[in-house]
Protein: Recombination-associated protein RdgC
Amino acid sequence: MFKNLMLYRLAGAWPASAAQLEEALAREPFAECGATQQKSIGWVPPRGEQHGALVESVDGQWIARLAIETKAVPGEAVRRKVQEAVEHIEQTSGRKPGKKELRDLRDDALLALLPQAFARRTQVTVWIDPRERRLLLDAGSQGKADEVIASLVRLAGRDFSIALAQTQQSPQAAMTAWLAAQSPDELPGALAVERECELKGSGEEPAVVKFTRHELATDEVRQHIVEGKLPTRLALSWRARVGFVLTQALQLKKISFLEGVFDEQAKDVAADERFDADVALATGELAPLITDLLAALGGEAEPGQPSGFTDAPKTVDAAHDEAVTSADDPPF
Structure:
C-alpha cells in the first residue's frame, strides 16, 4: 500500500475526528481537467469507490487520497502553431509581432492545443496517525508532497501547522556512523544495514559512488567515508519484517514487506474487506518502524530546539516550510 513515506508533524487545531477531516476535504473534491485546464487537484475516495468516503478510519488510522491530473502540450507543437500565426500576420499586415503579442500568441496556441492533450493522473495516499499527530505521505517527489500540504493548508483555517519531522541526529550523520561501524553491535537493535547505498563527496563536481547488491560492512566502504564521502541513501531492514531505503532528508523509499509478513493476513479475506486488511497490516507494521527509526536518530527535536537538520538543505519549498495558515478559510 505504501511505497514511499515523507514524515511530517502536525500541530495546532487539528480535527478531532475523521468525520471532521472528511467535512474539510469535501470542500476541495477532485474534478477532471476541463478542455483548456492544465492541472486539477482534489480529494478522492481512498477505496476507489465512486461517491465513497474521502477519509477512511481503520484501527484508529486515517487514510485519504489526493488526485493530481495534468495535461502537457509538447513545446514543439506550441512553437509550430505560434510560427504559423506569426507567418500569417507577416503575410497579411507586413509587420512582425512584438514581444507582448508573441506572448499572447503562445497563450492562444496553448489553449487551442490543450483540448487535444492527454490527461495524466497520479494519486498521493495520505496517512494520518491522530494519536502520534503524524502526517505521512506516500509521495515519490517533493512536488507531489507540496500539493498535499498546500491543499491541507487551504482547508485548515487558522491555528494549524505542518512541519517536516526533525530529529536530534541527522539521518546522514547516523547513516555515516552505521556504515563506519566495525561491529553489528554498534547498530540500533531494530535496524539492520542491507546491500544498497549511495555515497556522495563534496565540491562543485562531487564524486558519487553507488553500491547495489553489495556487502557494505567492508573496508572499501569505510575508506570512502574516511575520504569524505557521505551517505545520501542507505538500504535498511526493520526487525526482518520491512525493508526500505532511508535518505538524508528522512524520507523512506522502496518500502517492501519482507517474505512472510503479508502471509500472516487471513487468506480468506473478502474483496470488500481487503482495503481494511491492507491498511491495518501496513500501518500496524510501519507505525512502530517509524517510532524505532526516530529513536535511532536520537528522537524528535522539539520545536525551537536545535536538530540534526540545522545545516541541512530545506526539503520543503519556502511557501510551505512552516505551512502555517493565516487564511480566512473556515477552520476544521
